[in-house]
Amino acid sequence: METGSSIGDSSFGFALASGGAIALLAAALSLADPEKRRQQQAASVGGNEMEAVRNYFNTAGFDRWRRIYGDTDDVNNVQLDIRKGHAETVEKVLTILKKESLEGVTVCDAGCGTGSLTVPMMLEGAIVTASDISSAMVSEAEKNAAEALKGLGSSKPVQLPVFEASDLESLKGKYHTVACIDVLIHYPKEKVAGMIAHLASLADQRVILSFAPETPFLALLKRIGELFPGPSKATRAYLHTEADIEAALNAAGWTVRNRDMTATKFYYSRLLEAVPAGTK
After folding, report:
1. N or C: which end of the chain has fewer CB within 10 A?
2. How far apart, in whole angstroms, are the C-alpha atoms of residue 118 and residue 120?
3. Could you give phi then psi for residue 66, rounded to 5 degrees?
4. Other CB atoms closer than 10 Å to residue 219's CB: what's the count?
5. Where does the Methyltransferase domain start and stop, copy by copy (predicted)?
6. Half-sphere exposure (CA, 13 Å, Cβ side) for 251?
7. Edge-to-edge strands of the sheet including 203-211?
8. Each residue's pLDDT expressed in tens, for the chain with a length of 280 residues
9. Are strands 203-211 and 127-132 parallel, antiparallel or unpaired?
């Protein structure tokens, strides 16, 4: 999915631009009913929330996020800001990964989206397995990887990634590194610890996660953004505290080695790199 830890759209951006808008909108929060809207979205695909997410990223969401992660000019200022923020997070992940050679290193890119992390890892010689809940996203990522390989004048061995349409729960295998970037925003608090444990079980040496951090300020922005859902907004967005994510990693036998944060006007992503407990 790789939707980005973004909060808001163009309407939200307009609201924030006015000094008194937050106070006025905060007063109206109790009148909003985003949960009812979410239930309606899930009901449209049989009541399953993950199916609602899958449907979104195969339809309106696919078009929206393909443009955001692409290089076209067909984006508004908020989407452009999200594009820049996500690109910054990807660069930070690559900086971590490239501290050692990626050549021949097996990596699972869980929730690969359009391939913004998959493709550069491939070009560094990593053996990548890339998956996404959306078959449309997977097809776009595969196309982007194939295009990147065209005319590649490098002596470094490069292997086309293995692509599959799969939700995180269904991922299998064993990898040196598992990366899950800007995907946990779709997992509620009661499920995220189990998901992190599952992802960690697939990794031998390293787990890299990014998530939308839960703070009072960002919680308020998220709540206001729900007042302006728009036809192409994500079905649901969950914020997570760094303490909860780290506790889940610790419980799975991992310890956080590196931390980073990307924050723009409309994009917020906390990045953690974890290694097996006891690793020097």
Report:
1. C
2. 6
3. -65, -40
4. 13
5. 103-148
6. 14
7. 162-165, 127-132, 106-110, 175-180, 203-211, 268-276, 254-263
8. 656 555 544 333 333 334 444 444 444 444 444 455 445 544 544 557 788 889 889 998 899 999 999 988 999 999 999 999 999 999 999 999 999 999 999 999 999 999 999 999 999 999 999 999 999 999 999 999 999 988 676 666 799 999 999 999 999 999 999 999 999 998 999 999 999 999 999 999 999 999 999 977 666 666 666 665 554 454 478 999 999 999 999 999 999 999 999 999 989 999 999 999 988 7
9. unpaired
Written as six digits, the tokens of 95 are: 């900086």
Beta bridge partners of 55: none
Rg from Cα positions in the chain: 18
Q: Global pTM?
A: 0.82
Residue 75 contacts residue 66 (beta carbons within 8 Å): no
Q: DSSP secondary-structure letter at 232?
A: T
List, in sequence order, the alpha helices (H) in the chain. Answer: 10-17, 21-28, 34-43, 49-58, 60-69, 77-97, 118-123, 135-149, 189-201, 216-225, 242-251
Burial of 216 (0-12, 13-18, 19+ CB in 10 A): exposed
Instruction: From 233, 244, 255, select the one nearest 190 (Cα to Cα).
Output: 244
Residue with tokens 């808001």: 8
Please give the Cα distance from 53 to 61 (Å, whole number): 9
Q: Count other C-beta atoms under 10 Å from residue 231's C-beta.
A: 6
State both tokens at 64. 């929206």
97 is written with which tokens? Answer: 């990964």
What residues contact 26, with CB distance under 8 A and at least 6 apart?
Answer: 220, 224
